[in-house]
Design brief:
heterodimer; A: about 375 residues; alpha+beta; MetI-like fold; 2 domains; three-stranded antiparallel sheet; two-stranded antiparallel ribbon; 15 helices; flat; B: about 325 residues; mainly alpha; two-stranded antiparallel sheet; 16 helices; 2 strands
Chain lengths: ~375, ~325
């Protein structure tokens, strides 16, 4: 038997599972839960990640508005009305003294009645960091005086200028973020609940319920959104307190937004309810509520969240537009839209262009939400 | 085709009826009616208001009848062109609005036209030259257009015009024509002033349209019949126009369903910002003073505008695509 075989045989041991075995990387990939796959895919979109980081910074900032803002929301500086933005310098006459601003010298242009402010080169006002400044009540509860940055003692600090009552624009923008950024969240919550329950019922039961819901959606979709928002918010009672008005506006914004979501839920459910796992659940006696909530919705929850992210900006813009027109939130509540009402007077804007500044955070937020939503939508289906 | 038209007209009428009910509910939402406000105002000025007079007014305006009946009267009036009574101006709504309705129609129509005229060539270019410099540039511009809210754009334009030219661009016509009867010179002036608001309102719609047309056309361009056509030696231009473009055109036309409401929305706020002589500023002031009949008429009018626009686009679509007029819905 020592004769060599007539054909070639590999002497190395033969492993039948060789082709099926996974490398550790493949195994990590195949065993990963869905949310991790989504995260991996989302991480690939550089712009979307940057947008998400920016949004996180924005939203964290509204937790500490009082500390971040150098002044209070309504602090008036009557001797600095329509003061221009001050620029921060590092060197005074060639000598380094750290970040400081020059004091402002005021004189009234008697021909145009324009308030002119010129930096006073003799007055050096170094900024103070992590300092005690104007007292405030943190979230209206705890008293405090700690600020991230304060003006020099006896000096002033208007990095983005002041408005017609001499209130610091930067501080007002920081406080305004609290309202403007949360409007979208509450609104989307309302629209999410409505959209999922109405769309879910329509899609799961079908038949005449579906037909009725479809008609309602069509009617609501054919209506121009903004005039309807305007009419509804004009109908809010004048006697309501600012907080009630705030909730009223957010609910109005959410009330008209659900049709799109409901339509998406419905079409998905119409297909999914025919699946075997759904029949199995029904045979085991699960209630419609449980089947929809437990077995059907999780199938496309990531999609829903992604599309919800994309409709937050329209709500933020809606609130801005309503407040800008004077139909939404009213002072003393301060949102970016309320700040922009100052810019309605175009003559004032021509003289004091920094009144337009509240636009910048609005556009930034909207862009960030759009980019993040796009990224999320692409990542929402990691198995494709 | 006829049965399609009839069916479509019927749904349109039903939709309008439902919208009118909704609008009427909104009109009735604020607590009290205009008369209570009026009486409070008169009393604060020290005038005594006799109960008799109140009752008379209440009866005259039909405010003492049940809700359903008031709704009936209102709808009946609407159908007959009677838009109700503006309490703020003390005039019938029809006299208050003047040629604002016409200008609103003109503005919205011009914007839709603008959106299609601009979006079509750019969309086709972007799709056929995918990932070229032109495509990237246009996509970026489109993103910017989508993200800039139109009323902020209007504000910026107003500011720039004020600073650079020292003029106000916020009108629909030269000042000497306002509230004057129509004449060729007035028409010319309106057309001259039209492009700024049209550009502002149409910006985001155009950007969205370009994106959708590009995506649709790209989908079609990758299909096999295009490859076949190219393999058989059809010239590029002819191939494009003959098949894929026609397929991509359907959703392009059907998209007016989402485009029109957003344009009407945009025109309201942009005209309020730029104080154009359209319904926008008046709707705003009517809402602010809770002159609800005036506001209701405007709302109804804007809804009518979108519903009719959608009807027209559906008819157009049915002409384009036999699948639609023979039953079956719009494919999106």
């Amino acid at each position: 038997m020592n004769k060599p075989l007539p054909h070639f045989v590999d002497t190395s041991p033969f492993d039948v599972y060789e082709t099926e075995r996974l490398t550790p990387e493949q195994e990590r990939f195949y065993m990963a839960p869905q949310w991790r796959l989504i995260w991996w895919k989302f991480r690939g979109h550089v712009i979307a990640v940057a947008a998400a980081v920016a949004l996180i910074v924005f939203y964290v900032s509204i937790l500490f508005s009082e500390i971040l803002a150098p002044y209070g929301r309504d602090t008036k500086h009557t001797e600095f009305i329509y003061a221009p933005p001050q620029s921060v310098h590092l060197f005074h006459q060639g000598r380094f003294i750290g970040p400081f601003v020059y004091g402002l010298k005021y004189h009234l242009d008697l021909e145009t009645l324009k308030r002119n402010y010129t930096p006073d080169r003799g007055q050096v006002q170094p900024l103070r960091f992590f300092c005690l400044g104007e007292p405030y009540r943190f979230w209206g509860l705890v008293e405090g005086r700690f600020h991230l940055v304060c003006p020099a003692r006896g000096g002033e600090l208007f990095l983005l200028g002041t408005d017609r009552l001499g209130r610091d624009m930067l501080s007002r923008l920081i406080y305004g973020a609290r309202i403007s950024l949360t409007v979208g969240l509450i609104g989307i919550f309302v629209s999410f609940v409505l959209g999922i329950s109405i769309g879910g019922v329509a899609g799961y039961f079908g038949g005449w319920i579906d037909a009725v819901v479809q008609r309602i959606i069509e009617i609501l979709k054919s209506l121009p959104e903004l005039p309807l928002w305007m009419a509804l918010s004009a109908a809010l009672p004048v006697s309501w307190s600012p907080i009630l008005v705030y909730f009223g506006i957010t609910i109005i914004l959410g009330l008209l937004d659900w049709p799109g979501l409901a339509r998406a839920v419905r079409s998905k459910l119409l297909a999914l309810r025919e699946e075997d796992f759904c029949t199995a659940a029904r045979l085991m006696g699960a209630s419609p509520k449980r089947i929809i909530g437990r077995h059907l919705l999780p199938n496309f929850m990531s999609h829903l969240i992604a599309s919800a992210t994309l409709s937050i900006p329209s709500m933020i813009l809606g609130e801005t537009a309503l407040s800008f027109l004077g139909l939404g939130l009213r002072p003393p509540v301060t949102s970016w839209g309320v700040l922009l009402t100052e810019a309605q007077n175009i003559e004032a804007v021509a003289l004091y262009p920094w009144l337009l500044l509240p636009m910048v955070p609005v556009i930034l937020t909207v862009l960030a939400f759009n980019f993040m939503g796009d990224g999320l939508r692409d990542a929402a289906d990691p198995y494709s | 085709m006829l049965s399609f038209l009839v069916r479509r007209l019927l749904t349109m009428a039903l939709t309008l009826l439902a919208i009118s009910a909704l609008v009427f509910v909104i009109i009735q939402l604020p607590p009290g009616d205009y008369l209570t406000t009026l009486i409070a105002e008169l009393q604060s000025q020290g005038e005594q208001v006799a109960q008799q007079k109140i009752d008379f007014l209440r009866h005259q305006y039909g405010l003492d009848r049940p809700m359903i009946e008031q709704y009936g009267i209102w709808v009946w009036g609407l159908v007959h062109g009677d838009l109700g009574y503006s309490f703020e101006y003390n005039k019938p709504v029809r006299d208050v609005v003047g040629d604002r309705l016409l200008l609103t129609v003109l503005l919205n129509f011009a914007t839709v036209l603008f959106v299609y005229l601009v979006a079509f060539p750019i969309g086709v270019y972007s799709a056929t030259n995918q990932y070229s410099w032109g495509d990237h540039g246009l996509t970026f511009l489109g993103l910017l257009g989508l993200a800039t809210p139109n009323f902020l754009l209007a504000l910026i334009l107003l500011y720039l015009a004020n600073v650079m030219f020292g003029t106000s661009i916020g009108t629909m016509m030269a000042p000497q024509f306002i509230d004057k009867p129509w004449s060729p010179a007035k028409v010319g002036s309106v057309l001259e002033h039209l492009w700024v608001p049209v550009l502002v309102i149409g910006m985001s719609g155009t950007a969205g349209m370009i994106r959708r047309l590009r995506a649709n056309l790209l989908d079609e361009l990758q299909k096999q019949y295009v490859v076949t056509g190219r393999a058989k030696g059809l010239p590029a231009g002819r191939l494009l126009v003959k098949y894929p473009l026609r397929m991509a055109l359907n959703p392009f036309v059907a998209d007016i369903g989402s485009l029109l409401p957003s344009i009407v929305s945009g025109s309201v706020i942009v005209s309020a910002v730029m104080s154009l002589q359209t319904t926008g500023p008046m709707l705003l002031s009517a809402l602010q003073s809770q002159d609800m009949y005036l506001a209701g008429s405007f709302l109804m009018f804007l809804a009518l505008l979108t519903v009719i626009g959608m009807f027209l686009s559906d008819v157009l679509l049915a002409v384009l695509d036999p699948r639609i007029r023979l039953g079956g819905g719009i494919r999106r």
